[in-house]
Write a structure and sequence with these properties.
By secondary structure, the chain is α+β, with helices and mostly antiparallel strands. It contains 7 helices and 4 strands, in the order ααβααβαβαβα. The longest helix has 28 residues. The model has no long low-confidence stretch (mean pLDDT about 95).
Length: about 210
Amino acid sequence: MNETDPTVPPASLYSLLAGRRSVRRYRPDPVPADIVQRLVQAAAAAPSAHNRQPWRYVVVEDAATKAKLAQAMGRQLAEDRARDGDDADAIRLDVERSFARITGAPVMILACLTLGEMDAYPDPKRRDAEFLMAVQSTAMATQNLLLAAHAEGLGACWMCAPLFCPDTVRAALTLPADWQPQGLITLGYPQQPGKARPRKSLADILLVWWI
């Protein structure tokens, strides 16, 4: 690939897409800052509704900050599950697992969105559609980030937990009030390869009208 020919050989692209795995355990090696910057730049290259680019990212490498966030999210998780009447030992193990995943990653990247530059409407139907477009845009950008991480030889895993405690996450990281946490990406050099997961067949996901 070069500046005059921006194409990528299809085989290389498809291999990259098929080879990405979710990785949850990492070596302690730090991730160079220039690589992290490239990942966020890859995210920013994604398409977005109205080209408003509603995604916002928070990169955290500081151990104390990761622990602070993990503890706050763990307290909320324990409260929610206790309210559901779940077993106390199961709750404790769940909280410990979540804490280990967040604090055990050399880098943590929080994906957020803001509606600050999205269109505003007086009716709920269009407001909901606009919010969903911001969610879709942020998800597309974050997929770029995950694929770029894989291309860089890094492992990463998307955690949806911030969706269950957005106020807790926002307070722990002192985020702007309009930043809405969407997902947490743990990032680092893999301790071991990620596992391949089953995929639905094309027959299960594809409807072809033109055949």
